[in-house]
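Lab meeting tomorrow. Look over both lines:
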Amino acid sequence: MSLTSGKSGLASGAELDHREIEAFLYEEAAMLDEWRLDDWFALFQEGGSYEVPQAGASDEANSSTNLFYISDNYFRLRHRVERLKKRGNHSEWPRSICSRMIGNVRLLDHDEGICKVASRFITHRSKNDVTDMFCGHHLYTLSFASGNFKIMAKRTQIDMNTLRPQGRISIIV
């Protein structure tokens, strides 16, 4: 499927292929699996945000009225990345071994260099001789300019009604 420019196109005079969106999401997952957190943070546009509502929350949940595991603006996300990289971060030192699988990538909407994208995920995390699995979907707002994507907003919906037996998420899912 090829997305072309025009009134509802992504960028003036640009053509974008669905494979480019998938490649971007796959590379983002690889950055997280390989603990390249600075590279991952660089994918965010200044002013971007990252949210993870509580397990089982609806896509419409709002962080001002609902419990969120993560509701980070750009500044707080930078702080989270710096904290996760430190040895003193007791929850991720030594860090978890993760393997993320991304699938069912869909373009939901696009206009004037901005696109809305959804994907499904399964994340396996191994730490302290225990392997946990998280599943859900990501909702992205991406900007596209000069041949590059930037994350304006990312919401990770955990499609589980509880985190038990996992009990906590110290990783960025």
